[in-house]
Every structure is written in C-alpha cells, then in structure tokens.
Write a structure and sequence with these properties.
By secondary structure, this protein is an alpha+beta fold. It is built from four helices and three strands, in the order E-H-H-E-E-H-H.
Length: 79
C-alpha cells in the first residue's frame, strides 16, 4: 500500500523517505492534495541482485566431479 506524502514534507524529509523506499516502501507525492508522482523502489536494484545470484550459481556449477572421483567418494562413504 502506498502512503501519501505532501511535496513539502517529501522535500524536507527526503533522506528518511529514500531510506524507507530502499527498504521496499512506496509513496505517492501530492501537491495540494492531488497525486503528482509515485516514489517506488528501483527495479534496477532487483535486477542487479538477480544477476549476482545467477553468477554465483554459475560459479558453483563450474566445479565438476568426475565419475572416478564420485565412485571414490561413494566407496569412502561405505567404510
């Protein structure tokens, strides 16, 4: 749910509002009671997180275990 905030309050409390938007909140900025803009979390930030997660998965998959190593690990586990 978006919270409404007047333009003057948005201007005077901008650092606080930006911290809250970064945390996931959304605001509608009003001018004399009329909505004029929406302040929402950036989608670019989410894309950056997603890209980093995908890269981490790719790095984790690079280490392959050969059939011989796998057989050796199985045998070691049975002892």
């Amino acid at each position: 749910m978006q919270k409404e905030i007047g333009a003057y309050d948005a201007k005077t409390r901008l650092p606080e509002i930006l911290r809250r938007v970064e945390a996931g909140e959304s605001f509608t900025i009003t001018n004399r009671g009329r909505p004029v803009a929406d302040l929402v979390p950036s989608q670019l930030r989410e894309r950056t997180r997603t890209k980093a997660a995908i890269e981490a998965l790719h790095k984790a998959r690079k280490h392959r275990v050969s059939d011989a190593e796998l057989a050796e690990l199985r045998e070691a586990g049975r002892k």
